[in-house]
Each structure stands twice: as C-alpha cells, then as structure tokens.
Amino acid sequence: MKKRILASLLCYPFLTHSVRAQTDYQTDSVFISKIFNTALGDGKCYEVLRHLTTEIGSRLSGSPGAAKAVEYTRDVMKEQKFDNVFLQNVMVPHWVRGAKEQGYILNGKLKINVPIAALGGSVATPKEGIKAQVIEVKNFQELRALGADKVKGKIVFFNRPMDPTKLSTFEAYGAAGDQRRAGPSEAGQMGAVGCIVRSLTTRLDDVAHTGSMRYASGAPIIPAAAISTNAAELLSKMLKEKPGTEFYFKQNCETLPDAPSHNVIGELKGSKTSPQYIVAGGHLDSWDFAQGAHDDGSGCVQSIEAVRILSVLGYKPNNTLRAVMYMNEENGLKGGIAYADSAKSKNEKHLAAIESDRGGFIPLGFGIIGTPAQKSKIKSWSNLFAPYGLHEIGPGGGGADIGPLGPQGTVLLGLVPDSQRYFDYHHASNDTFDKISKRELELGAASMASMMYLLDKYGVE
Amino acid sequence: MKKRILASLLCYPFLTHSVRAQTDYQTDSVFISKIFNTALGDGKCYEVLRHLTTEIGSRLSGSPGAAKAVEYTRDVMKEQKFDNVFLQNVMVPHWVRGAKEQGYILNGKLKINVPIAALGGSVATPKEGIKAQVIEVKNFQELRALGADKVKGKIVFFNRPMDPTKLSTFEAYGAAGDQRRAGPSEAGQMGAVGCIVRSLTTRLDDVAHTGSMRYASGAPIIPAAAISTNAAELLSKMLKEKPGTEFYFKQNCETLPDAPSHNVIGELKGSKTSPQYIVAGGHLDSWDFAQGAHDDGSGCVQSIEAVRILSVLGYKPNNTLRAVMYMNEENGLKGGIAYADSAKSKNEKHLAAIESDRGGFIPLGFGIIGTPAQKSKIKSWSNLFAPYGLHEIGPGGGGADIGPLGPQGTVLLGLVPDSQRYFDYHHASNDTFDKISKRELELGAASMASMMYLLDKYGVE
After folding, report:
1. Contact predicate B320/B269, CB 8 Å
2. pLDDT at res. B397
3. What is the set of domains in chain B, with CATH numbers?
4. Separation of alpha carbons A338 and A263, rounded Å
5. Model confidence at B20, in pLDDT bands (50, 70, 90)?
6. Do the beta carbons of residue B415 and residue B355 sit within 8 Å?
7. Cβ pair A166:B1 closer than 8 A
8. pTM score of the predicted model
9. Is there a contact between A389 and B392 if contact means CB atoms under 8 Å apart?
C-alpha cells in the first residue's frame, strides 16, 4: 500500500501549490491508509453481519427479527465502546406475508408451478385464490390502449425486463420499477382482478423478487405478486402460443396496525463547543424472506465499522459522528423521516450524511447531493480516494433514509459500489450472507470512514 | 448510456483542441458504446463458459477435459464464423493427482482430518503415507535458522498468510507464493520428509488451494501439499499447545511423459496488405479438481467474445485479430512459449496482446508493458474507457501466456478486474460457474474488444 501512496503523492502536481496543502495531504493519506489497514487487517463488520444475517435473519418492520436486530446492533455498539448508544422510537407499517404463496400457469390440462412472492403492501387473494386469463403488457400505455373490455376480469402481467444494456443496474431498475410500484393500481383501474409482475432482476432465474407497491387513492384494491424471470419468460411464450392461458395464485398477506420499532444510533462525540453531526447509515429492516445481507445488512455493519475504526485509531472528531441503523426503508421510510424530524426538533445541525444501501460490493466512489460549492469541495479530495479505487466521486445520489435530512441543508452522500450483482439478490431469498465478500464489505466501511474523517476535518463549505 | 457518453464529451476539455480529434472521439465513443451494448444485450460468452465449465469441467494439461476443451472452443469459433480457426501443436507436462489425498493432524489419540491437495508437480508419498512431527515456519530464513538437526525427519509446515492489508490481492499472493513454489525444496534441503503449505487465499475456510511447485536442481524430492487455511490455523494452535503434534498425509500423484495438446486460435483477418497481429487471450487449462470458471475459463470466453463482437458489428480490422486459448499456463507455460516461437518463425509481427487471467470480475482497467511512448499513447485513450469504469490504465502487467511475445516487441496488456474475490476460488474446487456474474464477465469482454479496436485503429507507435 505504501508504494501506491507514494505514487499518488508524485502524481498530483497541485500538491506543490503550498507546503500546507502538501502537509495536509501527507497527513490525510497516511491516516486514510491506517483506516484501510484496520478495516482489512482487523475488521469486525463481517462477523457482525454474519450474526445479523444468519443468527437473526430476516427483519421486516414490525417483525420479531427486526426487534432482535435493534437490540443486537445496540449491544454491538455498546460493546465497541461507542460514547453513547440509544434507540429512537418510530411507528412502522406492519405487513405480514402469512403462509407461503402458491402460483401456477394453467394451459389446458398442463399446470406449471412457478416461483411467486406477494408484493409488499398487497392484499391477500380470496381464500380459494384467483384464477383468470392473462393479459401481458410491457407498460401502462399498452395496458390503457387495450381498453377496459379486454382487461376486465383478467390478471394483468407486466413483463418489461430491466434493460441489460444500462451500465448502471440502478438506472435499469429505475426505468422498470413503475410496473411493481404502480402496476397493481393501473391494472385495477382497468378492471383486472389480479396483477403479476416480472421480477426486477437482470438475471434469468427461478427466484421471485418482492418489493413495495402502493395502491393509488381510489383505485380498486387487487392482489399483486412478483414471479421469477424464468417464469415470466415461460408464461410469455405460452401466451403467444395459446392466448387463453390462465394463471392461478393464492396469497395470504395482510397489513396489521402500525407497530412500535426503533432507529438505533451510536455516537462518537465531537470535541467542538457546539458540535454538528455527521452520519453514516444503512437500514436495518429487510424483506421477510431474505437475510438481507446486501440489502442492507451490509450498510448497517459498514456504518458501525466506519465509526468504530475512527474511534480505535484514536481520532478525536470535531463533530459528533453517528452510526445510524434506520428502520423501515423497505416499506415506509418511517425511520428516515423520524430521524430527520428529531434532528429538526432538537436543532441538531447535520453537516453531512452518508448512506450505504447499494450492497456490500467493491466500492467505486460516492454520489453527492449538495450545492455546487459543496460538491466541488468534496471532489477536491479525489486524489485521496483514488489509490483505493474510488474514482467515481460525484455522480449518483445519497440514499432513501438520509433523504429527509436534505431540506435541513445536510450534504447527502451515497456509497457507490459496483452495481452489477446487486439485482441478482435484491429483495429475494438468495440475498444471503454467503454472497458477501469479506474484503469488499470491509473496503466499503473503510471508504465511509475516510469520507467521514475528511468531512469532519474540513467541513463542507 | 447515452447520457454518460455526453457527460464524458463535456468533461474532457482537450477534445476541443482540434475538430479531427473531436470527430475521432465521437466516432470511437459511439462505436465503443455499441461494443458494450452488444456484450450486455446480446452476449454469448456466458453460455460458452457454462458449457466449458459445467459440461466439460476440469482441464489440466494432458487430461481428457483439456482435449475436449480444445475441440469445443475450436467448434465455437467455427460456429461463430471466425475467418479462420486452427490448432497449434504443443507438448505439455502431464501430471496426474491419482486417488484423492488424505491428511490428518495427530495429537495423542486425537485425529483430525483436514482438507488437503497435492501441489502440482509434487511426487507421491510412499504408499503407506508419511507421518511425522511438524515444524511450523513463516519463511525460508526461519527454516534455515532452525538448522538441519531440528528439521530432519520432520514435516515442514509453511504458514505465512497472505497479507490482508494489501489492496491488491495479487500483491499479497506474490509476497506469499514462494512458500508453495520453492518451499518443498527448501524443506527437503534441510532434511524434511514432507512439506505442507497454508493455502494461498485471503479467506479462512475449508478449501485446499493447489498450484504448481518445482523441485530445485539437486534438492531432495519430497512430497508436498496444500492444506486449507482453517486447517493451518488449527494445526498452528495445536503445535503451540503441544509441540510434538504430528501430521499424516498420503498422496498418489505422478508425472507422466509429456503429452500432445494444442493452443486454439481463431482469426478475424486484417485488411492491410501486410497485416500485423493483435491477440486477445486466456488459458484453456485449469487445475484438475476445478471447473476453472474464473481461472481461466473467463479469460478464454472473453477473448472469443471480444473478437466475435467486433465481427458482428461489421468492423473491418486493419490488422488480424486473434482469440487465442493457450494451453498449459498452470504448470508449464508451454502454450505461451509455443505460440511466441511460432510467431517468430513465421515472422508474424505482433502489435499487441491482451490477456485476461485475473478472473471474470468487474473490469477496472488494463495493465500495460511497453515503452513509455506506447504506454503514453494507450493512456491517451483513457477518456474513452472512463465511462465504463475503466480508470486504472497503466499499472499492473500483462499476463503469463503472452509474456513470451514481449521480446518480439509486442505491447503486452492485461485486463485488470477487481481482485478482491479472486483468491477465494484460485486453484480450488470452488472455482465454479455459479461464482460468475454474467454482467461482470460481459463487461470484461467488451473492455477487451474496445481495447482491440483502438489498438487496431491507432496502432501503438
């Protein structure tokens, strides 16, 4: 690593502009190398993630798993001797899947079971399930153009794949996500009795990927589910061969009354007279059938690790550094909203917040939401990040949970890892601990710690 | 993708230097975007790799699997309508493992079986195996300092881990590899009866990672094997508690007479009067108990795909573009040597060669070996690679198989993917097809095709 740092020193001619800048650069680059050495050589986050995902498991808001995860991450930060660890109350939606769904394609006498998962927020089918002919569409325009007569009494099947040619899979996800989020209401408004959606993944496989949906105000409430991409391909093929092909599904989900839960917060206290706050965060909740290893156990343990590393290296921050485990990103964002509301009411000025919610993959940079001057200041640290492969400083956003802090003037940063594998596991039962690379996870934590250090030392103005 | 290209155009002020440069940049960036779109949207290499790894499987030089892989990749390139596909004869070492090894730790009455794999090139143990006390050392100096009296009749155990704090796992591998390659002879020269080596991986797990070793001239020939990192940790702990702890192992490997095999070569012919050659290559052989998905099935299928994409896009190269599947990288490099010898004897001037042999992970750049002027010219294309996350243009080397072309003045390039996960699977039974990300594999192929295109269009001088 030393060699790379030296090379970096030699490569950046602007460093000679002033002795002060050079000294700072040297100090910072040495400190950042210590951060990375600690993360890779003596990291704790992989073991914390192992416990969170394999011992506790799934953590949907309101579930026993979510409650255990709150206690566990609080205890971890206490054991790691954070200055202050506390819970923040938040009421969360409480949706439960109930008994496992069933779904199959019916083609004459042929019955083919397919992987299926109710969408988060969907209602159940009637107890006997729903069986109906299927109308396949790629988008809402196509659906509307069909007219209510053709849709009435049918199951609408949204089957527009994520565009594989988009380099960023998040971009492809963004362009396909309306089918899942709003598709059920669009279908209901046209008289459909049910809605099935092609799983939002770039892979062809046999895994159903869930995710949240929301019924539009006044729209008929019809049940909705995701089916695997292989099942979507098969159903599409069969519909072309025999347009009368039917689909059956039965699901048992329901929305219970809101439940009490918590954000979990650990602090390393700032030494300034009136310290501001810098947050590293992820969300503690996951979907109900997933270990939530990449989404977003990784972000949680990286946030804890970022603050821990700065603490064990003896760094005395100017501002108060917080690791925040947000509750309920998946189906409500209540934790993020409660956190920002609390900051506002307590007049806790937040300088910056960094979120990791794009999986524990190799980190490539940070997205920034802030003023041009703030972005420019943060980009001026690029030479300190480049030796660690963090070249993408600027593009991309912050994160859902920290978003509500934006109106308070907080600079929002998102850790940007490689996105290629994220949707292989997103909202699915295969998002498990064995998909995590220890080193990639640790590099993300070190990247966040380095950014926290620079934000704390130099501010954002 | 268009958005990113536009952003790139706006970001690179040097483009305004001349209208010519701008036109070229626009032409090139549009063509490169087509390369990436083809790879991601209509790629063939993932399916070729599936067949190579799961239908054919392991491909150690001289094995039936290697012979099948030669025929299969030849047939693939013929089906893909390469202009010319042919085999190049090469005699290769023929080492076979024989029946599965056995190894266990003996501590009084306690007997603990451990994962073990003979090193490639090692001799067998006597039929009854070897049982002896164990001397643990970290390096050759420590071994020599012990003196022959303490080592004689023992099994030497090299247990220096790969340094986890090295950002590049290849750097850590380089610093630990002497134990495997030369450890057995060092131990033999001190009177040891056997040698065991901690597996060269950054993980703690239960997989034995093999790899080649070589007996030094005149050194005693003793059997040598790798044990898993968890076994190494356990053995080390037990030796501290009870220094008389013994180890037993039995292996059945042998070196047969050299065997006939082949490099596999496919061409897209150059249109110049005297075309030179540009190679994309990987090695077709793998270790005997591995599917060799990352090492180096990936590099083979990416090389085929790089040339195929340029062909289907209708690109008419100036020079002849070759995809080369080298045989015998793992334990002899005979294919790389034979290829370079043939090029020399036929006076086939090779402009450049690109190797992919660092796994099918997300590509981050290219290493270059060439003159300063050649490096500088290739680096001047950085702005064309940056939109695809290829920021590391320059550092790192070429590749073992293309190395023998170096003395002929060929510029040597190595595709540099993320290295964090490579040694999780390197030379081990878990290097299987399911560890491959389709998109990451395809992005590597597109990166190689883009580099071939620029090398062909602009040359290296």
Report:
1. yes
2. 81
3. 2-95+257-458 (3.40.630.10), 98-252 (3.50.30.30)
4. 9
5. low
6. yes
7. yes
8. 0.95
9. yes
